[in-house]
Amino acid sequence: MAAIMDEKARAILEAAIEAVGGRKRLQRVTDMVITATHALYTDTIRYRSPNRISRESRFPWGVVRIGYDGTSSWHTNKDGKLVLEEDKKIPAVQWLFHKVEVLLLLPLETEARSVEYLGGKNAYYFEDGETVRKVADILRVTFPDGWVFRLYFARDSKLLVKSEFRHTSHQSRYVERFFTRYKKVRSILFPRRVYEYNHQSGRFTRVKIDYEVNVGLKRRSFKMPSAKEVC
Asked: What residue spans define the domains of the chain?
């Protein structure tokens, strides 16, 4: 189903699509692996278009897993055991999908309920590792599941430089994410550095991101791992 989108929002999104490599290249992305290296842990996100995803978070004290197999969600509970949530996308899975969809841009045209242009404003963001204050065009992306993203696109480069997100009913922490140091992977530009600002702690966290595109992930690999596979 196509998202409701005003003309200005469509123009901003189309310019961003062209800036990262163009519609044809993005349409050829069938799956990807995203590795996010934080100071204290590493996230590995595996995504297969359009409806399979998983994330493995490796901490010094253990591993936390979450995923969606096309029908049901699964996740690690507080006791460290995997739990299956049949026939539903839990909020954490919803957010994980949207996190990838924002990077790929094209899914916003079909997965979002609406995309609205909020205007341009001076915003702080990162450019080649330095903080700058420039005009950015802002889109509000509302998804049917209640997640709302505010996306900032640099007016000069057309690239996504910042995102904010919240859920209309599910309580979630408020984090701003800043995207910088774009590099080509399979002729598509992806941000290799992300700075996350947590308003609760008032701290910035730097994250190094690596991408693998079209690695041939199989649908069956997104099933909930067995106890033997986890050990």
From this structure: 4-230
Quote the pTM value.
Answer: 0.93
DSSP string, the chain: -PPEE-HHHHHHHHHHHHHHT-HHHHHT--EEEEEEE-SS-EEEEEEETTTEEEEEEEETTEEEEEEE-SS-EEEE-TTS-EEEETT---HHHHHHHHHHHHHH-TTHHHH-SEEEEEEEEEEEEEETTEEEEEEEEEEEEE-TTSEEEEEEEETTT--EEEEEEEESSS----EEEEEEEEEEETTEEEEEEEEEEETTTTEEEEEEEEEEE-----GGGGSPPPHHHH-
| pLDDT one-digit tens code per residue, 203-231 | 889 999 999 999 999 999 999 987 555 54
Choose among 35, 3, 193, 177: nearest CA to 106: 3
Does residue 98 register a pLDDT over 50? yes
The fold adopted by the segment(s) 4-230 is outer membrane lipoprotein receptor (LolB), chain A (2.50.20)
